[in-house]
Every structure is written in C-alpha cells, then in structure tokens.
Amino acid sequence: MPWPSRKRDKGAVADKKEPDAKIAKTEEETQDKEEEEKSTKPPAGSSKSGWKNWKKTKESDSGGEESKITYCHWLLKSEPESRLEKGVDVKFSIDDLKAQPNQTTFWDGVRNYQARNFLRAMKLGQQAFFYHSNCKEPGIVGIVKIVKEAYPDHTQFDQKDPHYDSSSRKENPKWSMVDVQFERMTKRFIPLSEIKAHHLAHKADGGPLKNMMLFTRQRLSIQPLTQEEFDFVLSLEEEKPH
C-alpha cells in the first residue's frame, strides 16, 4: 500500500525558522491558466558569476549573444512531521522513503503549475536534494535520483485523496509525478539557515547561490538547481556545522 500523498497541495510553504514553534503553513495559490500553458522547460536567465571554482553549463540562445542557465539538478521538499490534510497525514520523511520497497516511490500530490512543469522537465538519472520542509529546522538531509520520468499522477483522480482534482480528465491529465529512489544521506544535515547565509553573501559578491530559487521562489515544492548551485551546496557537507 503506497504512502499517503506527502507533497503540498498548491505549493510548498515558505520555510521560516521560529523558536519553539512549527512553521506557519501559508500555501502559495495555484497559478492561473496562463501559467498552465507556459512551456514545460525550466526557466532560463543570464548568469555573470565570476566564481572560478564552479563549472557552469551554458547554452546559447538563438541569437548566440546570451547564455542561459541550464538546470540539471533538483530540490524536492517534503514534510517530516505529521500534518493532517483532509484527514490524511501527509508526513513523508527521508526515512519513510528508505523504508519503501527498493527505496523507491512516486512523487505525487504536486498541484502548482510551475512545480509540475519542473517535474515534467526531469530526466532519468538526475539527482535531487531531499529537503525536509515545514518543520522546526528545515534543510537538506539526503540525495535521491530520478528513476522514472513524468507520468500522470493517479491521486488527481482519487476522490479519497487530499489532492483530488475534479477538473482533471484522464484523457488529458493536469498533474504529473516522477519516481525517485534514495541514493544516500548527506554526510551531515545542511540547515536552511546555513544555506541562506551563503545566499546572502553570494548576492553581494556574485557567488553561485546568488539566484538560488530556494530564496527567490521559496514556496515552490519542486525547485531546479544549476550544476554550480548543486556542487556548492553539496560541498557544505564536508564542512563543520556553523
């Protein structure tokens, strides 16, 4: 029997650390029809990072004058603590993933158009950070890989599921999911607060995390990462906690 849906219904909440209290659960509104009709490709933007130690994948646009950021890794948010949504516990931690057969499961329940488009852009074998969200101390706990590319999310048709969508049709499903498999735990927990400190520093000096979507679109439960963003965050596991 599969685990209950464990992702956000309309979008992930913004992670804010509050002493001795759970994070407020403020969901992002589902984007309108125009968002649904946008390209399924991840967004692109120019990059002028001067960091010499971080390799960047570039692709020229049709004019050949500008470079575009290529997203090849991901960050997936899930809730490690119990929370009822329409009577169903949406908790799903990395330990829950490890307990699945073959340490593999589907990543269902995404109900935000941009997050869905990111799911549809995922490629077989790509890696993603598993991020514990909506908890006392959010952050990255492990690494998973994409083992099945996007296909229709069955929960949109299940009236008993908290993420049921009566407007979706089986002949033209609105929502997609992918399958992910546990790869490994990070060598240490990498908290949001630490990543944010680097993001703020990089905004000032042009470092690799200056445009990290974890801070520019923090409510999205599915977020793309550039190679240099992924590499830099991964390097933090080798450092002593601050």
Task: Give your account of this protein's structure.
It is a single chain. The protein is an alpha+beta fold. It has a domain at 71-188 and 218-226: ph1033 like fold, CATH 3.10.590. The protein has 6 helices and 10 strands; from the N terminus they run αβββββαβαβββααβα. It has helices at 33-36, 94-98, 113-121, 192-205, 213-216, 227-235, and strands at residues 58-60, 67-69, 71-78, 84-85, 88-89, 104-107, 127-132, 139-152, 176-191, 222-226. It has a 6-stranded mixed sheet with strand order 6-9-8-7-3-10. Strand 1 (58-60) and strand 2 form a beta hairpin. It is globular and about 50 Å long.
Per-chain topology:
Elements: H1 33-36, E1 58-60, E2 67-69, E3 71-78, E4 84-85, E5 88-89, H2 94-98, E6 104-107, H3 113-121, E7 127-132, E8 139-152, E9 176-191, H4 192-205, H5 213-216, E10 222-226, H6 227-235
The share of residues in extended strands comes to 25-35%
Radius of gyration, Cα only, in angstroms?
18 Å
Summarize the main sheet.
Answer: 6 strands, mixed
Q: For the record, what is the CATH homologous superfamily label of one domain?
A: ph1033 like domains
User: What are the segments in which pLDDT stays under 50 over at least 5 consecutive residues?
Assistant: 16-67
The CATH class designation of one domain is Alpha Beta
- Secondary-structure content class: alpha+beta
CATH fold title of one domain: ph1033 like fold
Q: Classify the helix fraction into a percent range.
A: 10-25%
H/E order of the elements? HEEEEEHEHEEEHHEH
Total helix count?
Answer: 6
Q: What is the typical, i.e. mean, pLDDT?
A: 81
- Order of strands in the sheet with the most strands? 6-9-8-7-3-10
CA-to-CA gap between the ends?
Answer: 41 Å
Shape: globular
Question: How is the quaternary structure best described?
Answer: single chain
InterPro entries: 5hmC_binding, EVE_domain, PUA-like_sf, THYN1-like_EVE
Subcellular location: Nucleus
Pfam families: EVE
Function: Specifically binds 5-hydroxymethylcytosine (5hmC), suggesting that it acts as a specific reader of 5hmC.
